[in-house]
Specification:
Strand order of the largest sheet: 3-11-10
EC number: 2.1.1.354
Largest sheet: 3 strands, antiparallel
Catalytic activity: L-lysyl(4)-[histone H3] + 3 S-adenosyl-L-methionine = N(6),N(6),N(6)-trimethyl-L-lysyl(4)-[histone H3] + 3 S-adenosyl-L-homocysteine + 3 H(+)
GO cellular component, one term: nucleus
Structural class: mainly alpha
Order of helices and strands: EEEEEEHHHHEEEEHEEHHHHHHHHHH
Enzyme class: transferase
Protein name: [histone H3]-lysine(4) N-trimethyltransferase
Radius of gyration: 25 Å
Helix content: 40-55%
CATH architecture of the largest domain: Beta Complex
């Protein structure tokens, strides 16, 4: 599979859903359907000095551009690879004397790329960037005002360029970015550090229980020819991979999820309507599949089955607690978060099921803060409960489930619970082989941890056997 190869997918008219992509052949679980370099991409403002603007890797020591003083890179190789994208941005920042927000910077990069490639970067690109949906006509008044503000900032920034554009043309680009921008993660896949535009990926429609997932792969090993390496390393070292979560039949539509599945169908519908301007008609939304688990009361406890009033009361308490937890996390008051989580989990005991969303969200916050405070044994206990709930809700090959299981495995490793750590790490490895592939840095890290825990388990068993021999000998005496 090389970048831009679209032999496994074709464009088709999906009726009420609009354009979509479907499989042109049978695709196996974990297979890369297609890989695509970003048309344009930028690092988020908040990570501008922490993440390489070329490869989007999180690095401790970065070198900044000597001219604009804004862009940061791993090394000279990354800086050279990104220069084609950065040179006009660099000039604009120096002339303007300030750096606009990431949305304006991305819009400008898209415009510069359109001027260079007329909206089509390669023969494998199915539609030009200008043909992508912008949904500007569907935007509510407050969103239109935000775009209008961005357009005026863009005009000041773009004034450094020669070509002028109408307000409608610029608003069209901002609408495209709003509806089609794809969040980019760092090399560990744990932090969203930027946003990019991938024209072919934009054509893949949504399903809450999709047959594909998308991952940003920072590795370049798939580029085989020297010419191909030079071309894509020079213009864009970032690529996404669309991977099959299960076997996909020839002619079947390719789908991904635009939102996290860990919400009730009504809440997912609200988010999709607010951000992407459509109503989801997938089976999970139509039949409200797993909504009952996400809002379930606990099974019969010591006091019998909880009443509706008890469940309503603890749900309201949990919601209030989660809001306080979020504020305390932002304030970095981790002891307060620990106290709130403990209080809330005690209140939920025997009242909310292990799959209830409020219960899982409190567990997630508890694991995060306890790991930070190095209370690994306590964090591991909560992580096990969290993974049990996630496993009942998420798709078995969900990337979110894989990452959660991986983090639980690491927490158990830190707590010295080698056997459970090994079990969780192996489970995460099986999932991420499908969603991320064997060459992704996250999967390779997991493979290393899997081998490490295997060795430690063998040593542990050998030590236990030696102890047993000594014990038996002592008993005989």
């Amino acid at each position: 599979m090389t970048v831009g190869n679209m032999e496994s997918a074709e464009l088709f008219d999906g009726g009420i859903k609009g354009r979509g992509l479907r499989a042109t052949k049978e695709i196996s679980t974990g297979e890369v359907v297609f890989a695509e370099p970003s048309y344009s991409a930028v690092v988020f403002d908040s990570f501008a000095s922490q993440v390489c603007h070329s490869c989007f890797r999180h690095q401790a020591q970065l070198h900044r551009c000597g001219q604009c003083k804004f862009a940061h890179y791993c090394n000279r190789t990354c800086q050279t690879a990104c220069w084609e994208e950065h040179k006009q941005e660099c000039q604009a920042i120096r002339k303007l004397g300030t750096v606009p927000g990431d949305k304006v910077r991305l819009a400008a990069r898209v415009m510069w790329r359109i001027h260079k490639d007329t909206g089509v970067a390669s023969d494998s690109q199915l539609l030009s960037v200008e043909e992508l949906e912008d949904h500007v006509a569907d935007l509510p008044e407050d969103h239109l005002k935000r775009i209008d503000t961005d357009v005026h900032v863009f005009l000041q920034y773009w004034s450094c360029g020669r070509t002028k554009h109408s307000l409608d043309e610029i608003a069209h680009i901002f609408g495209i970015i709003k509806c089609n921008g794809f969040t980019l993660s760092d090399q560990r896949g744990l932090k969203a550090v930027g946003v990019g535009l991938f024209p072919n990926l934009c054509l893949v429609n949504h399903d809450c229980w999709p047959n594909c997932s998308v991952v940003l792969n920072h590795e370049q090993s798939h580029l085989t020819s020297c010419t191909e390496r030079m071309r894509y390393n020079f213009y864009c070292p970032r690529r996404i991979e669309l991977r099959a979560l299960r076997k996909i039949c020839e002619g079947e539509e390719l789908t991904v999820s635009y939102v996290d599945f860990l919400d009730t169908s009504a809440e997912r519908q609200r988010k999709l309507k607010e951000h992407f301007y459509f109503e989801c008609t997938c089976e999970h939304c139509r039949q409200h599949i797993k909504d009952d688990l996400m809002t379930a009361a606990a099974a019969d406890g010591p006091g019998g089955k909880p009443s509706a009033d008890q469940v309503q009361e603890v749900t309201a308490f949990s919601q209030e607690c989660l809001e306080k937890i979020e504020r305390s996390l932002m304030d970095k008051d981790f002891q307060e978060v620990r106290m709130l989580c403990s209080k809330c989990l005690e209140k939920q005991k025997n009242l909310l099921a292990d799959t209830h969303l409020h219960h899982l969200r409190v567990l997630s916050a508890a694991v995060e803060v306890l790991s930070y405070l190095r209370c690994f044994s306590e964090a591991a206990a909560y992580a096990r409960r969290m993974v049990q709930g996630y496993t009942k809700l998420y798709h078995p090959n969900s990337a979110q489930l894989g990452i959660a299981v991986m983090r639980a495995g690491v927490t158990h490793l830190q707590a010295g619970m080698i056997e459970m750590a090994h079990e969780l790490i192996c489970k995460a490895y099986r999932i991420l082989l499908v969603t991320h592939g064997p060459n992704h840095s996250v999967t390779r890290d997991l493979e290393a941890m899997r081998r490490q825990t295997e060795v430690e388990l063998k040593l542990l068993k050998q030590d236990e056997s030696a102890c047993q021999v000594r014990s038996d000998a002592a008993l005989k005496k």
